[in-house]
Design a protein that fits this description.
single chain, alpha+beta, two-stranded antiparallel ribbon, 7 strands
Length: 115
């Protein structure tokens, strides 16, 4: 699981149901691609203010290689901006990831600029 924040995205944008639906779909699609899993294995658990903070979980099955989990964790830690490449996401500012948990190990916070 992780919390991803978007520094230039205002929480009021989610008052528009079409925006929220598109954001959720795009976020899940991009996170699933980064994890190399089906989008039905990615869930958004929360969207909250503080810029905009998106809590999400990638559900990893027993058949998911440990090396892939480590790669996803490393990508989130070092270059989360590379995950969110859709044009609309480039306007959401700096991307920060925190509370990254793979198994029982929690990593430290980091920051990346979207590419």
């Amino acid at each position: 699981s992780s919390t991803i924040s978007f520094s230039a995205l205002d929480i009021s944008a989610f008052d528009d149901s079409a925006f929220e639906a598109a954001f959720r779909s795009d976020f899940i699609t991009q996170m699933a691609a980064a994890a190399q899993v089906s989008s039905d294995l990615v869930a958004i658990s929360s969207i909250a203010q503080g810029s905009v903070q998106v809590g999400s979980t990638v559900h990893i099955t027993d058949s998911f290689p440990a090396a892939d989990a480590s790669t996803l964790e490393a990508t989130l830690r070092s270059s989360s901006g590379s995950i969110f490449t859709y044009n609309s996401f480039s306007s959401y500012g700096t991307i920060n990831a925190s509370s990254i948990t793979v198994g029982n190990a929690e990593t430290t916070c980091f920051s990346a600029t979207p590419t």
